[in-house]
């Protein structure tokens, strides 16, 4: 059995005509890959800083955290966000990954799921934006979904989790007490527990 790579590699790739930065850890041959997106105040490095990438690698997963275009060390793109995620999955040979999508990254993940839910194995919605806009197109999708929110989220209210799960037929809502919009920063241990439980149950 291949040993998991526990050292986190920082690399660049050309995608959609831009230089995109990403972090990768874990066994490339792992059966499950987790793709970590990020919010507007954060970057791929956030997932390393709070221990998520190491946790995933230790759990036997391959993890890829990407600086979205125009954030972190990635250049901006002029093209379509859904096309960018399609190119990303193709470039990294990600076969039905689980996507973790907080906040601003919902501009990528939500329309992607509306069009290509079959390309994912699971969706961890961490108070992503864009639910209201695409709710009609999410109707009846059976993609396994963990909707995880902070109880004190004043940016994307917890009521959005209910709207999301009313559309998606295979979802679970978790509200982390005393955590705000970036609930994984304030309640990291609880967030990690819920994430790993969700992955193990897939």
UniProtKB/TrEMBL annotation:
Keyword Hydrolase belongs to the record: yes
Keywords: Cytoplasm, Hydrolase
Annotated Gene Ontology cellular component terms: cytoplasm
Localization in the cell: Cytoplasm
Pfam families: Abhydrolase_6
Sequence ranges assigned to domain AB hydrolase-1 in this UniProt record: 34-128
Classification via InterPro entries: AB_hydrolase_1, AB_hydrolase_fold
GO molecular function, one term: hydrolase activity
Coiled coil ranges: none
Recorded family membership: Belongs to the AB hydrolase superfamily. ABHD14 family.
Protein name: Alpha/beta hydrolase
Organism whose genome encodes this protein: Zarconia navalis LEGE 11467
């Amino acid at each position: 059995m291949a040993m998991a790579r526990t050292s986190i590699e920082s690399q660049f790739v050309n995608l959609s005509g831009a230089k995109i930065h990403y972090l990768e850890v874990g066994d490339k041959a792992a059966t499950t890959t987790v793709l970590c997106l990020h919010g507007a105040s954060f970057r791929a490095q956030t997932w390393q800083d709070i221990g998520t990438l190491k946790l995933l690698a230790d759990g036997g997963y391959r993890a890829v955290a990407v600086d979205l275009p125009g954030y972190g060390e990635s250049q901006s793109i002029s093209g379509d966000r859904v096309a960018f995620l399609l190119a990303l999955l193709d470039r990294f040979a990600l076969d039905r990954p689980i996507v973790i999508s907080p906040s601003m990254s919902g501009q990528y993940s939500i329309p992607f799921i509306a069009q290509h839910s079959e390309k994912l194995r699971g969706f961890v919605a961490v108070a992503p934006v864009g639910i209201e806009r695409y709710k009609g197109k999410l109707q009846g999708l059976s993609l396994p979904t963990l909707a995880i929110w902070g109880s004190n989220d004043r940016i994307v209210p917890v009521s959005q989790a209910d709207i999301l799960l009313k559309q998606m037929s295979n979802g679970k809502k978790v509200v982390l007490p005393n955590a705000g919009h970036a609930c994984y920063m304030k309640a990291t241990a609880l967030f990690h527990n819920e994430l790993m439980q969700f992955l193990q149950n897939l």
